């Protein structure tokens, strides 16, 4: 059937396998961690299908995932048993060599679900109960075939771990292996995968073809487009990095949402605190008046009927104030919990963000891709903000308001403004100036331009966009004013 394509992705690693990554692959999580993962809006783990996960070990044996040793421990024991030194285990801690190849194998979702679950219907809705789903023999046989393929291609001794996940949206394999030069009994990426980018690319192209011919054709999976067909450089790595960039941007979007949530909750908290202070003040004033009336009862010359009436009114108001205080106190606690939860999520995001960025490295293309997405999002917010004062008016001064708010200015050349702002945000001042001038922009003095020490991301992006808009304005063009 058309569209049933295999998936094979590979990336190199110089930093080994962290404990967190090992725990993720082995699903070595406590009940509390599982609960947190299942509730994470950015994840797609299904705890009710976790029991279906498995691993393939030496000899192609299928078994439940063994969590007694981390992947890093397995690698260390594997190398030690063969007398192979890890070149990244230097005392100074510097890691320079690619010592691990991390493969992901899979296929299109429809076919992988058929292999894993047969005709059973898996509910992919977050939080759904799939505890009744069972694992089919076909997925084990397919995984065993992939394992044997890798063992034959690279040597079974070099396979460190081989885990099959059926608890996510698309069943897949994680295979971690060390590239060992058999002749010299040492780790050598260049020997195994190629000494140049071109050689490595050619090896991956050949591996795609071999995988489909030797394994996946049997399982109804076709070969995906290769690097030559797409003209992409090192396609599997490129796809992987694009996915990571997307994850970084998604995390950034979530972070901005959490910051807005915190700001709203803090404003609400301040308002509720003020209301509580006023209610407490009113409660005390009522109580003082009640106490004064109580002292007046029984005294000569007092209108006891009037005092009793006033006392009843005060007690009724006091109960109302107490009820409002109780409600506001609950609102205060809810707001505080919201802030604490959002801040905890922000802290977790920061760690998640950092770990993903480690894999991205300093590749300029991906850095600019991420920046461009953030700049575009900020730009759209600025355009929306500029339009706000105009929307309710629609009077004879509309054009004047549009000009004054910056709406017209920002939308005259959106693509140019963004491109110039991108260069500014990367501190490519000369390039930004040249770009603006080559597009008919104004001459702007950018001496001393740069990010302020205490400036957050959004402030910095806004300044870049504002400066870019000024630079991209046609030379000599003045802002028109209403008469």
UniProtKB/TrEMBL annotation:
Ranges where the record places region Disordered: 1-35
Gene Ontology BP annotations: DNA recombination
Keywords: Coiled coil
SUPFAM superfamilies xrefs: Tropomyosin (SSF57997)
CDD domains xrefs: MobM_relaxase (cd17242)
Segments forming a coiled coil: 262-359
One matching Pfam family: Mob_Pre
Compositionally skewed regions (Basic and acidic residues) per UniProt: 1-12
Gene Ontology molecular function, alphabetical: DNA binding
Protein name: Recombinase
């Amino acid at each position: 059937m058309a569209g049933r394509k295999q998936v094979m992705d590979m990336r190199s690693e110089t930093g080994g396998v962290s404990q967190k990554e090992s725990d993720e692959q082995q699903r070595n999580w406590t009940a509390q961690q599982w609960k947190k993962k299942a509730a994470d809006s950015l994840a797609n783990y299904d705890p009710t299908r976790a029991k279906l996960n498995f691993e393939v070990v030496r000899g192609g044996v299928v078994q439940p995932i063994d969590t007694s040793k981390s992947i890093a421990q397995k690698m260390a024991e594997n190398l030690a048993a063969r007398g192979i030194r890890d070149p990244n285990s230097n005392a100074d801690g510097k890691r320079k060599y690619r010592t691990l190849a991390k493969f992901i194998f899979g296929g299109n979702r429809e076919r992988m679900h058929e292999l894993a679950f047969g005709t059973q219907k898996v509910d992919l809705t977050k939080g759904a109960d799939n505890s009744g789903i069972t694992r089919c023999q076909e997925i084990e046989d397919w995984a065993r075939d992939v394992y044997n393929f890798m063992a034959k291609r690279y040597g079974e001794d070099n396979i460190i771990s081989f885990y099959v996940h059926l608890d996510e949206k698309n069943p897949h394999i994680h295979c971690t292996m060390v590239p060992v030069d058999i002749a010299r009994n040492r780790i050598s990426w260049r020997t195994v995968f190629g000494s140049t980018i071109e050689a490595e690319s050619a090896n991956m192209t050949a591996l795609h073809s071999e995988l489909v011919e030797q394994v996946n054709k049997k399982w109804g999976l076709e070969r995906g487009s290769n690097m030559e067909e797409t003209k992409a450089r090192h396609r599997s790595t490129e796809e992987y990095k694009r996915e990571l960039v997307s994850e970084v941007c998604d995390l950034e979007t979530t972070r901005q949402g959490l910051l807005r949530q915190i700001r709203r909750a803090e404003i609400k908290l301040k308002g509720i605190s003020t209301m509580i202070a006023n209610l407490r003040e009113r409660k005390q004033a009522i109580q003082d008046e009640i106490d004064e009336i109580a002292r007046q009862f029984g005294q000569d010359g007092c209108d006891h009927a009037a005092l009793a009436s006033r006392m009843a009114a005060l007690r009724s108001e006091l109960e109302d104030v107490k009820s409002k205080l109780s409600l506001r106190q609950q609102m205060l606690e809810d707001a505080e919990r919201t802030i604490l939860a959002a801040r905890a999520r922000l802290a977790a995001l920061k760690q998640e963000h950092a770990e993903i960025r480690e894999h991205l490295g300093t590749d300029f293309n991906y850095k600019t891709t991420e920046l461009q997405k953030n700049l575009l999002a900020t730009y759209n917010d600025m355009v929306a903000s500029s339009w706000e004062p105009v929307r309710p008016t629609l009077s004879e001064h509309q054009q004047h308001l549009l000009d004054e708010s910056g709406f017209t200015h920002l939308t005259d050349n959106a693509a140019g403004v963004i491109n110039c702002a991108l260069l500014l945000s990367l501190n490519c001042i000369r390039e930004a100036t040249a770009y603006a001038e080559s597009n008919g922009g104004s001459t702007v003095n950018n001496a001393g331009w740069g990010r302020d020490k205490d400036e957050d991301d959004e402030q910095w992006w806004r300044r870049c966009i504002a400066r870019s808009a000024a630079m991209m304005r046609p030379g000599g063009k003045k802002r028109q004013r209403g008469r």
